[in-house]
Amino acid sequence: MRYIRYAFLGAMAIVLIAVALANRGFVTLRLLPAELADLLGLTHSIQLPLFIVIFGGIAAGLLIGFFWEWLREHKVRAEANRKASEVKKLERELRRVKGQRDEGKDEVLAILDEAR
């Protein structure tokens, strides 16, 4: 299984390198469309190779997706934490009740009862 993973990662690296080599040309990224930028006075722009723009878009999409999924699963995580704390509380109560039940018994018999 490890070799399949390494083969997949190697193939992915080759594809990414090929995309980067095919898209080395520089492009201009602007903050706003030209007319709106002139109107507002925000004429910020930057020149980057196209493959950086492509890979940056992919990375930004992945990060936004991970964050969105993390927010979406908040209810599930909160419910799991509530259930875990309830289980711990019930386990403490069970130990307390067993301790009260075995209070007058011989220690050996109490250990044998707990082993069952």
What are the main properties of this structure?
116 residues; mainly alpha; 2 domains; 5 helices; elongated; membrane; LapA_dom; transmembrane; transmembrane helix
Question: What does this protein structure show overall?
Answer:
With 116 residues, this protein is mainly alpha-helical. It folds into 2 domains: 1-72, no CATH class; 76-116, no CATH class. It is 76% helix and 9% strand. It has 5 helices and 2 strands, in the order H-E-H-E-H-H-H. Strands 1-2 form a two-stranded antiparallel ribbon. It is elongated and about 85 Å long. The two termini are 42 Å apart. The relative contact order is 0.06. One of its GO terms (cellular component) is plasma membrane.
| Distinct helical segment count | 5
Q: Any idea what the radius of gyration is?
A: 31 Å
Q: What does the overall shape look like? A: elongated
**Helix/strand/pairing class, anyone?**
mainly alpha
Tell me the series of helices and strands, N- to C-terminal: HEHEHHH
Task: Flag low-confidence runs.
Answer: none
Mean of pLDDT: 89
Q: Which sheet architecture does the biggest sheet show?
A: 2 strands, antiparallel
Please give the share of residues in helix.
over 70%
The total count of strands amounts to 2
Tell me the number of structural domains: 2
Read across the widest sheet, the strand sequence of neighbours is 1-2
From the N-terminal CA to the C-terminal CA, the straight-line distance is 42 Å
DSSP strand content: 5-15%
Blueprint of the fold:
Blueprint: H1 2-22, E1 26-30, H2 34-40, E2 45-49, H3 50-72, H4 74-101, H5 107-115
